[in-house]
Amino acid sequence: MAPQAASDLACDVLVVGSGAGGLSAAITARKRGLDVLVIEKEPFFGGTTAFSGGVLWVPGNPHAVRAGLPDTREAARTYLRHEAGNAYDEAAVEAFLDEGPRMIEFFERETEVKFVLSGYPDYHPDAPGGAKAGRSVTAAPFDARKLGREIARLRPPLETITFIGMMFNSSNEDLKHFFRATRSLTSAAYVARRLARHLKDLAIHRRGVQITSGNALAARLAKTAFDLGIPIRTGTAAESLSIADGRVTGAVMRDADGKRCITARRAVVLACGGFPHDKERIAKAYPHVARGAEHLSPTPAGNTGDGIRLGEAAGGAFEIRMANAAAWMPVSRVPLGGGRTGVFPHLVDRYKPGIVAVNRHGRRFTNEANSYHDTGAAMIRDGEGAGETAAWLICDHPTIRKYGLGYAKPAPVPIGLSLRNGYLVTGRTLPDLARAAGIDPDGLVATVDLYNRDAVRGEDPAFGRGSTAFNRFLGDAEHRPNPNVAPVAKGPFYALKLVMGDLGTFDGLRTDTVGRVLRPDAHPIPGLYAVGNDRASIMGGAYPGAGITLGPIMTFGFITGRHLADEAA
């Protein structure tokens, strides 16, 4: 079927992708008078944002200012310069520091989007310019019933990190109640109320409606878009860009009815989520994949690099240049039944006392309570020269029943299914466990013996677990003297295999500070912009704190939308 005439569908701004980057640009442009259309190839809107923790890293944000938390622009600049190293982009960082707080103010004042202050320290709080708290905010919970019929098109949360579809808040406080449910009447009552409300929602709406984290952020952005009359056409892919006299003038899209052309009078904005499922590109960008190791990304399967390809086809510059091409995440493969498997991102369990990570030789190789990105980078380094890039989380019986391990939940939820389907491996003794998991038994026994000698005193001289405010933030505050350290001593013992995954890519199209896609000669391509993970990260392959993806994504989406409107004025 040939495309219909370009006049059949037209707008000022065409946004390709419906995550936080695309919707931020769309909403800002529409608020300033432009006619905006959003297309999304997946059947759901929300993109990777809907799977995320919904945390934004924005130094100087108004919530931190109101709370009186100490911080300065110079400290944030120093921290970013330290983290990014040679990849530090001064112009982009200055734009981010200028506009991030304004972005928060704009969305909270003008839209359904609301935030709450998060307690997260920076991931390297003791580095120059690092902060113990205040730079991260989290999307406020949202009642998805406010979406009306559109709730059916909101991307559900990542299945593996819910409990019978119930979401957990990104705040550590929410999770603490679930960990303490068998030991505290207050927590038991909290969990009972959450479960009762969730089961009622399932009966009525066939999904949870009291949503949190990135799902709440995606829903709040989409609700604003709908209220502003911005169409979000799901199941609609951009196949190519239309170019006339060197300017991008629209796109050819495909939906269930076939192909048609869309004219974009002002610009096309690429917001397709980067390339974490582009097998050819990640084989070049990810060192462990290049050497044949397994990689499982919990990002949406539709993030196949469409925006990068469209940008390159129009003459845009893309290169694999960052020290880390993605936000690394240790993950495990989860058997879900019926032949289905899922991917579990290990966001919380590694920090808990009594859980250590070892390689195939049975040796520890990093501080397991460091950030997921740092732990993933350590896994990649440890896998150099090996047949695979993998690690095993090891714990004893009291620990797994107290905290759970990966997809296996803490007591009172049984772990028998996770043992029967092979997700967990167990052994009466550590040598038994090692043989069952394919780990060197002598190495594991020696490692755990050495670790336990100091762990009984809450110490970890080998890797310094619990030595930073960030380590301790996600540990167990009730465990003394170190919230991240306890012995691995009381069998039976358990092992869970981790492989590498990611939360999204860092390398992307080169842009200027307003989002214009640049050619290799650094000249902008008229009419073409990129936001979100289609735009190269300003962090230079580093991961300084919770929300360093969404904070810049929404800030530069805001900048791009405003710039488009200003140009049209």
From TrEMBL:
Q: What protein name applies here?
A: 3-oxosteroid 1-dehydrogenase
Which InterPro entries does the entry mention?
FAD-dep_OxRdtase_2_FAD-bd, FAD-oxidoreductase_2, FAD/NAD-bd_sf, Succ_DH/fumarate_Rdtase_cat_sf
The superkingdom listed in its UniProt entry is Bacteria
> Cross-referenced NCBIfam families, in alphabetical order?
PRK06134.1
Question: Any idea where the FAD-dependent oxidoreductase 2 FAD-binding domain is?
Answer: 12-550
Kindly list the cofactors needed. FAD
Which GO molecular function annotations are given, in alphabetical order?
A: oxidoreductase activity
Kindly state which keywords UniProt assigns to this record, in alphabetical order.
Answer: FAD, Flavoprotein, Oxidoreductase
Q: Which GO terms describe its biological process?
A: steroid metabolic process
Presence of keyword Flavoprotein: yes
Gene3D superfamilies listed in its UniProt record:
FAD/NAD(P)-binding domain
